[in-house]
Protein backbone atom coordinates (compact mmCIF):
# COMPACT_ATOMS: atom_id res chain seq x y z
CA UNK A 1 0.00 0.00 0.00
CA UNK A 2 2.93 2.35 0.66
CA UNK A 3 4.00 1.98 -2.97
CA UNK A 4 0.61 3.22 -4.14
CA UNK A 5 0.93 6.39 -2.03
CA UNK A 6 4.50 6.86 -3.21
CA UNK A 7 3.53 6.58 -6.88
CA UNK A 8 0.50 8.85 -6.44
CA UNK A 9 2.62 11.42 -4.62
CA UNK A 10 5.23 11.41 -7.38
CA UNK A 11 2.49 11.75 -10.00
CA UNK A 12 0.94 14.76 -8.22
CA UNK A 13 4.30 16.49 -7.81
CA UNK A 14 5.24 15.83 -11.44
CA UNK A 15 1.87 17.10 -12.63
CA UNK A 16 2.18 20.39 -10.73
CA UNK A 17 5.76 20.98 -11.79
CA UNK A 18 4.98 20.40 -15.47
CA UNK A 19 1.66 22.21 -15.49
CA UNK A 20 3.14 25.30 -13.82
CA UNK A 21 5.01 26.14 -17.01
CA UNK A 22 1.80 25.94 -19.07
CA UNK A 23 -0.35 27.81 -16.54
CA UNK A 24 2.11 30.67 -16.14
CA UNK A 25 2.74 30.86 -19.87
CA UNK A 26 4.64 33.89 -21.06
CA UNK A 27 4.40 35.68 -17.72
CA UNK A 28 7.60 33.98 -16.59
CA UNK A 29 10.70 34.89 -18.53
CA UNK A 30 13.83 32.88 -17.88
CA UNK A 31 17.17 34.66 -17.91
CA UNK A 32 19.41 33.87 -20.91
CA UNK A 33 21.76 31.77 -18.77
CA UNK A 34 18.89 29.56 -17.58
CA UNK A 35 17.55 29.17 -21.13
CA UNK A 36 21.01 28.17 -22.32
CA UNK A 37 21.40 25.69 -19.46
CA UNK A 38 18.00 24.13 -20.15
CA UNK A 39 19.12 23.42 -23.72
CA UNK A 40 21.71 20.98 -22.35
CA UNK A 41 19.28 18.97 -20.20
CA UNK A 42 18.31 16.35 -22.85
CA UNK A 43 21.95 15.64 -23.73
CA UNK A 44 22.90 15.39 -20.07
CA UNK A 45 20.06 13.02 -19.21
CA UNK A 46 20.75 10.80 -22.22
CA UNK A 47 24.44 10.65 -21.29
CA UNK A 48 23.60 9.78 -17.68
CA UNK A 49 21.50 6.86 -18.92
CA UNK A 50 23.81 5.49 -21.64
CA UNK A 51 27.29 5.74 -20.09
CA UNK A 52 26.61 3.45 -17.08
CA UNK A 53 24.98 0.89 -19.39
CA UNK A 54 27.98 0.93 -21.73
CA UNK A 55 30.67 0.86 -19.05
CA UNK A 56 29.04 -1.63 -16.64
CA UNK A 57 26.73 -3.77 -18.78
CA UNK A 58 26.30 -6.47 -16.14
CA UNK A 59 25.83 -4.07 -13.23
CA UNK A 60 29.09 -4.95 -11.52
CA UNK A 61 32.54 -3.53 -11.93
CA UNK A 62 33.36 -1.43 -15.00
CA UNK A 63 34.29 -3.52 -18.05
CA UNK A 64 36.70 -1.29 -19.96
CA UNK A 65 37.91 -3.94 -22.38
CA UNK A 66 37.57 -4.56 -26.10
CA UNK A 67 35.38 -7.59 -25.25
CA UNK A 68 32.55 -5.32 -24.02
CA UNK A 69 30.23 -4.94 -27.05
CA UNK A 70 28.20 -2.14 -25.43
CA UNK A 71 31.35 -0.06 -24.93
CA UNK A 72 32.67 -0.75 -28.43
CA UNK A 73 29.31 0.16 -29.98
CA UNK A 74 29.00 3.34 -27.90
CA UNK A 75 32.52 4.49 -28.75
CA UNK A 76 31.92 3.78 -32.43
CA UNK A 77 28.66 5.76 -32.28
CA UNK A 78 30.52 8.68 -30.67
CA UNK A 79 33.06 8.63 -33.49
CA UNK A 80 30.40 8.49 -36.21
CA UNK A 81 28.44 11.29 -34.55
CA UNK A 82 31.52 13.50 -34.30
CA UNK A 83 32.44 12.84 -37.93
CA UNK A 84 29.02 13.11 -39.59
CA UNK A 85 26.58 14.87 -37.19
CA UNK A 86 23.83 12.59 -38.54
CA UNK A 87 21.75 11.02 -35.73
CA UNK A 88 20.15 8.22 -37.77
CA UNK A 89 23.49 7.14 -39.20
CA UNK A 90 25.02 7.27 -35.72
CA UNK A 91 22.32 5.01 -34.28
CA UNK A 92 22.49 2.57 -37.21
CA UNK A 93 26.27 2.23 -37.14
CA UNK A 94 26.38 1.98 -33.33
CA UNK A 95 23.78 -0.78 -33.29
CA UNK A 96 25.40 -2.63 -36.20
CA UNK A 97 28.79 -2.58 -34.50
CA UNK A 98 27.25 -3.69 -31.20
CA UNK A 99 25.41 -6.66 -32.73
CA UNK A 100 28.33 -7.70 -34.94
CA UNK A 101 30.76 -7.42 -32.03
CA UNK A 102 28.45 -9.38 -29.74
CA UNK A 103 27.74 -12.05 -32.35
CA UNK A 104 31.13 -12.48 -34.00
CA UNK A 105 33.97 -11.23 -31.82
CA UNK A 106 32.87 -12.05 -28.27
CA UNK A 107 31.99 -15.76 -28.91
CA UNK A 108 35.37 -16.35 -30.58
CA UNK A 109 37.25 -14.95 -27.59
CA UNK A 110 35.35 -16.93 -24.95
What's the SSE blueprint?
Blueprint: H1 2-24, H2 32-38, H3 41-55, H4 69-84, H5 87-109
Can you tag this structure with a few keywords?
110 residues, mainly alpha, 2 domains, flat
Task: Tell me about this structure.
The chain crosses the membrane at residues 6-25, 37-55, 88-109. This protein folds into two domains: 1-30; 40-109, no CATH class. The chain is built from five helices and no strands. The N and C termini lie far apart (46 Å). Helices cover 76% and strands 0% of the residues. The chain has 110 residues and is mainly α. The chain has helices spanning 2-24, 32-38, 41-55, 69-84, 87-109.
The description of the largest β-sheet is:
none
Overall helicity: over 70%
Mean pLDDT: 92
How far is it from the N-terminal to the C-terminal residue, by CA? 46 Å
Strand-residue proportion: under 5%
Order of helices and strands: HHHHH
Amino acid sequence: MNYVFLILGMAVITFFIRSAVFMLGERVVFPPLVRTALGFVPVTVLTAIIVPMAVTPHGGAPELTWRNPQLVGALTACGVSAATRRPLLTIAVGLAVFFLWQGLVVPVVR
